[in-house]
Design brief:
mainly alpha; Arc Repressor Mutant, subunit A; Tetracycline Repressor, domain 2
Length: 203
């Protein structure tokens, strides 16, 4: 493959990553990507054949990395409270660095859950890891409120995601800039941690 071909492919992939993240899979067209890459649509189709192929080529490794970073925290041999607080901090910082990521992940989980689970390995890793067993042991010992990990994990993910899903609306309603929003978001994270600790852990 020539240098020009490599450069063209990279331009297309960079444009695809940006547009998919902004509009999601369903809201993106090959024409959108071609225009962002300043390349004609026929050439984009020539290199990548289909939107689906291009999507997974661009995002499979990114999604796997996101899932694996969460899994690494869940598998750490540390106390459950420290683990959950670390998970919240990690999710917050990841999404603060890229506010569009929350909606993107939610849309892809909804759009094609089977492909998402298979290509990222999220189901196997979560079920095979020690987090669920550790959580259940803490429940049985009476140190954690009697709630399942299956209920608790979506609660944690959902609370953090909602901060950034509602980012644009919050900035509009309260007339704040990005710096002021981030200050609000960090305080929101503190409240979430306090609420979860109060609910889950029996001191």
């Amino acid at each position: 493959m020539t240098t020009n071909q490599n450069d063209t492919e990279e331009k297309i992939k960079e444009a695809a990553q940006r547009i998919f993240l902004e509009k999601g899979y369903e809201g993106t067209t090959i024409r959108d990507i071609a225009e962002a890459a300043q390349i004609n649509t026929a050439l984009t189709n020539y290199y990548f054949r289909s939107k689906e192929k291009l999507f997974w080529l661009v995002y499979e490794s990114l999604l796997k990395e996101a899932i694996q970073s969460v899994q690494a925290i869940l598998d750490k041999p540390i106390p459950m409270e420290e683990k959950l607080m670390g998970l919240i901090d990690h999710m917050f910082e990841t999404q603060a660095a890229n506010p569009n990521l929350s909606m993107f992940l939610m849309n892809e989980c909804r759009r094609d859950p089977k492909s998402f689970a298979e290509k990222t390995g999220v189901g196997c890793h979560l079920l095979e890891g020690g987090f669920i067993q550790q959580f259940q042991e803490e429940v049985e010992k009476g140190t954690i409120t009697n709630v399942s990990a299956e209920h608790m994990l979506p609660l944690v993910f959902g609370l953090i995601q909602q901060i950034f899903v509602g980012r644009e609306l919050h900035m509009h309603l309260f007339q704040v800039d990005e710096s002021e929003f981030l200050t609000f978001a960090r305080e929101q994270k503190r409240i979430i941690k306090d609420m979860l600790c109060t609910y889950l852990f029996k001191k």
